[in-house]
Write a structure and sequence with these properties.
By secondary structure, the protein is mainly alpha-helical. The chain folds into two domains: 40 residues; 87 residues, Cytochrome c-like domain (Cytochrome Bc1 Complex, Chain D, domain 2, Orthogonal Bundle). Helices cover 62% and strands 0% of the residues. The protein is built from six helices and no strands. The longest helix has 38 residues. It is globular, with a radius of gyration of 24 Å.
Length: 134
């Protein structure tokens, strides 16, 4: 009798483990789909350029080289491909959204989250990526 109970318990445990593994697999696919959907949004480069010229070019210049004719703190050259390839889109988003001081950079870089929506910021990030490829 203990042999039957033992085997029955092992079978139930295996089924439970299999069901748990299946649930984790389904959850993993669901999370990947959610993350992929968020990143799959197409960015509006025209809007990104318009916003960049309005909010960023005063310091970074129209071409991203940091040679604007107005107030110029020490700004990063956004046209250097080697530098830009090292920076993730998420990092660029954080710099634009939270400002330079929030990521250990120049505090003169303001946080644009008050003026720009997340979608606007992603559009700017997409446009900034084009500056290093001109």
């Amino acid at each position: 009798m203990s042999h039957v109970a033992s085997r029955g318990t092992a079978t139930t445990t295996s089924r439970d483990a299999g069901a748990a593994a299946l649930a984790l697999l389904v959850l993993s696919f669901a999370l990947v789909a959610v993350v992929s959907t968020g990143r799959a949004r197409s960015h509006d480069l025209s809007r990104g350029k318009e916003l960049y010229l309005q909010y960023c070019s005063g310091c970074h210049g129209e071409d991203g080289r940091g040679e604007a004719k107005t107030f110029r703190p020490n700004v990063g050259n956004l046209s250097v491909k080697e530098l830009m390839d090292q920076l993730s889109d998420e990092y660029l988003f954080a710099v634009i959204q939270k400002g330079g001081a929030a990521v250990g950079k120049n505090a003169a870089m303001p946080a644009w989250s008050i003026r720009l929506s997340d979608d606007d910021i992603w559009d700017v990030v997409a446009f900034v990526r084009t500056l290093a490829h001109r």
